[in-house]
Amino acid sequence: METTFPRLLLQHAAQRPADPAMREKEYGIWQTHSWAAMAQLVEQLACGLHEAGLAAGEHMVVVGANRPRLYATMLAVQSLGAIPVPLYQDAAAAEYVFPIHNAEVRFAFAEDQEQVDKLLEIREQCPRLAAIYYDDPRGLRNYGEPGLKSLDSLVAVGAGYAQKNPSFFRSQVENARPDDVAAMFYTSGTTGNPKGVVHSHRTLLDRANAGAQFDKLTHREEVLAYMPPAWIGQNIFSYAQWLCCGYVVNCPESSATVMIDLKEIGPTYYFAPPRVFEALLTTVMIRMEDAGWLKRKMFHAFMNLAKRVGPALMDRKAVGMGDRLLYGLGNVLAYGPLRNNLGFSRVRVGYTAGEAIGPDLFTFYRSIGINLKQLYGSTETAVFVCLQPDDQAKADTVGIPISGVEIKVADNGEILVRSGGLLKEYYKNPAATAEVLTADGWYHTSDAGFLDAQGHLKIIDRVKDVGRIHGGANDGALFAPKYVENKLKFFPYIKEAVAYGDGRERVCAMINIDFAAVGNWAERRNLPYAGYTDLAQKPEVYALIKDCVEKVNADLAADERLAGSQVSRFLVLHKELDADDGELTRTNKVRRGFIAEKYQLLVDALYGGKAEQYIETQVKFEDGRSGSVNATLRIVDTKIFAPVKVAA
C-alpha cells in the first residue's frame, strides 16, 4: 500500500469523523473515541513530542496494555518519522534493559505506576532514558523523578504548539514515505538476546491489507484487543488492520474482565493464541463437571454429535438430513448457548496463531459452529503468510499461501517464504539478518513442513526440534515434540507439557497440571490438598494424568509416521512453568532447551528408570521476592500401543 499509518488515520477522520474508532472500558462503562477525536489526540501528542525533542529516526518505547492513548502515542511517534517500540507490559524490569540500550531510547510511554516503577528501576543502567510519560496518574502524585511527566501535560503542550503551528502536523504526516521504518518488535529471545525486527509502513500494511481482503473485512467489524501490543499478532489485528479497514477496536478494562468484556462486545473478528482457546475450553469443562447429571449427559451427547458432523457443516459438505436436524436441535439447546457464554455468538472470522494448536482443540470449536481457522506467520513476516479459506479449515494444516506470498521447501524440510511483508532487517545485527534473508529475498522460517496435494501448508515442528528416535523398537522413527505436547494439552487437566526423545530410545514428558481444573476435580472427590505442589503429586492426580497420556498414545499409534512418539514415562512438575523463571517466553512458548538444562536431574531420572526424584527449584514470586520449591516427584510408566496398520 502506498500510504502510512498516520495518513490512514487522517483518511478515516476525514471520511467519517463521528464514527467510533476505539472503545475503552473504564469503571465498568464503555467510553467511545471517534476517528476525529483520535486524530486530534494524535496531533497534540505529536506536537508535544516534537517540542520535547523527539526526532525522526529515533526510537520511543511504549509499555502498557491496549489503550486508545497508547495507540495514539504510537501514531504520534510515527507521524514525526520516529519509531515506536512496544515492549511486554508483564516483563520484569531487567528485560527492558537490552532493548532500551540496543535502540538507544531517550523517550518512553508507560501506562501506569507499575510500568513507571520498572523504568525507573533500570534508569541507572539506561542513562539515555531522559523522558518517561505516564498515562494513569494513580499512585504517582508524589513522584519527583526528573523527566517523569504525565501524558496530559504532553497533550497540553502539544495543543498549544498545534494552535500556533496549524500546518505542522499534516506536513509531517505528508513527509513520511511507505518505505520508512514504522515499528520495531523484539523477538522473545528463546536463545540469547532478543532481536529487533524492523518493519516499514509498507511491509506491515501490505500484509494487513492482504489478510483483510482474504476474509472480506470491512469497517463494520468489532475487535477485542486484549493481548500484549508488543506481540506482533495483536499489533497487526488491532493496529495495522484497524487502520486498513477502519473497524472498531475495543479495549477491556483489565485482564481480569476480559471474559465479561468479550461477552458484552461480541466481536465479529477474533484472534487468540492456542493457550487462550485451551483456557476457555478448560473453563467450559470445569463448569460441565459441576452441572447436574442430566445436563452433563445431554451436553456430552450433543458434543459427540457435533464432533461427528459439525466440521462437515462448517465446510459446507453434505450431511444427512437426520444429523442436520439433530445438529439444529443441539444448536438451540447446547451449541448456541455455549457460543454465547464464550462471547463468540457474533464471530464471523476467528483465528489462532503463535504456535500450533492441537487438532482436537481446533475441531472442538469448529464443531460447535465457530469459524475458527489457523494462520501461519511470524514477527519477521508481518504475520500473514498462510490463511485458511472458510470451507477449507483443516486441523492439521495452516492454510494456503495468500496473495503476494511465495513458499518453497528446502532440502532439509525448512519452509522458505518470500512476500511483501518481510522484515527490513534485524536492528544492528547484520549477521543475524544474513542468516534468515537470502540475496534473492527468501526468508528462512526455521519451521519444518510441506505443502500437501491441495496446496495447504502443514507445519511439523521447528526444524531444530524435529528429531528421530535412536535405538529400541522405534529406531529411526520421527519425533515431533510440539505435536505430542499439543495433543496432551487438549485435555483440560494438562496446562503445559514438555516432551523429550530426540536421539533416545523412547519419549518422556514433564507435565504441568492445570491448577484450576484439577483443583475442581479434586474438590468434587473430597480430595484435600495444600497448594499446587501438594496437588500435583497426589496418586489420584497421577492416575488422572496417566489416563490422558495413554489416550494420546492411542491416537499416536494410529499415525504411521508418529507412532514412535508415544510417551513411555512422565512426571508431573512441582511448579508451574513461568516466564519469570525463564521457562517460557513472554508469548508463553516453552523454552525446551532451557528446561532440559534446568531440570537435567529430572530428565536423567526419567530416562534412568527411577520411580521418584527429589528436586529443589529456585523461583521468583510476583512481588519480586525469590524463594524455593522442593518436592519428591513420582515418575510413572505408561502403556504403549502397537502401531495401527492402515488398510491399503
Beta strands, count = 28
Helix proportion? 25-40%
Q: What order do the strands of the largest sheet run in, or round the barrel if closed?
A: 4-3-5-6-7
**Rg from C-alpha positions?**
25 Å
Low-confidence stretches: none
Query: Would you give the CATH topology of the domain at 5-200?
Result: Rossmann fold
Examine the secondary-structure arrangement and name the CATH architecture of the domain at 5-200.
3-Layer(aba) Sandwich
CATH class of the domain at 5-200, named Alpha Beta
Kindly, what is the distance between the CA atoms of the first and last residues, rounded to a whole number of angstroms? 50 Å
Q: How much strand content do the residues show? A: 15-25%
Tell me, briefly, the overall form. globular
Q: What's the average pLDDT?
A: 92
Which structural class best describes the helix and strand composition?
alpha/beta
Main pleated sheet? 5 strands, parallel
CATH superfamily of the domain at 5-200: ANL, N-terminal domain
Give the number of helices: 21
Describe this structure in words.
The chain is of the alpha/beta class. The strands form seven sheets. The protein has a five-stranded parallel β-sheet with strand order 4-3-5-6-7, with helices on both faces. Helix 1 packs antiparallel against helix 2 (35-52), helix 2 crosses helix 3 (68-79) and helix 11 packs parallel to helix 17. The protein is globular. Strand 1 (20-26) and strand 2 form a beta hairpin. Among the domains are: 5-200, Rossmann fold (3-Layer(aba) Sandwich); 398-463, Luciferase, domain 3 (Roll); 467-637, 2-Layer Sandwich (GMP Synthetase, Chain A, domain 3), CATH 3.30.300.30.
